[in-house]
Design a protein that fits this description.
Layout: E1 29-31, E2 45-47, E3 53-56, H1 74-91, E4 99-106, H2 112-119, E5 130-135, E6 146-154
Helix pairs in contact: 1-2
Length: 158
């Protein structure tokens, strides 16, 4: 797992790689049955038990809270969009460990390796969420390369 400088001070930058006190996503069953094609960084199926609180984020783009866009490169834009998803999750009382579904919209797939590498700094790569990657003709601004949505299931409090 890659480490980002300053992550200790900003919990939405990079997930804690399962070093927290609670087992990551223990309440979410993720699987990739042998009857489906092999995956590359995602799970085919997520099952959420009764009693979990679901959280949906809207599509998050690489624009910071002050309205400034990220640099026009895939790594910077993916990182800021993922950070914004993390901030949205946090505002709803969820974490990256609660995410069971990602939808990623890109204007082209040429930098898929970069998008995956940055995504893997946020999600649990041993239990990756289900994912969809959709190539779109364009986003709401021509300088935006990526938009990311997440769905999370927060375990019921004990």
């Amino acid at each position: 797992m890659a480490h980002v400088i300053g992550a200790e001070r900003d919990p939405v930058r990079v997930r804690d790689a399962g070093h927290g006190k609670i087992a990551p996503m223990a309440h979410i069953e993720l699987s990739s049955p042998a009857t489906l094609p092999a995956t590359n960084g995602y799970s085919h199926v997520a099952s959420i038990p009764p009693g979990c609180r679901l959280v949906w984020t809207s599509g998050q783009v690489p624009i910071d809270a002050d309205g400034a866009p990220a640099a026009a490169d895939w790594e910077a834009q993916t990182r800021l969009a993922m950070q914004n998803v993390g901030r949205a999750l946090e505002a709803a009382g969820a974490t990256w460990d609660d995410v069971f579904k990602l939808t990623i919209f890109v204007v082209d797939t040429s930098a898929l390796g970069t998008v995956r590498a940055v995504r893997d700094q946020f999600v649990n790569t041993t239990r990756p969420p289900t994912s969809s990657l959709v190539q779109v003709a364009g986003l709401f601004r021509p300088d935006m390369l990526i938009e990311i949505e997440a769905v999370a299931a927060v375990a019921a409090s004990s």
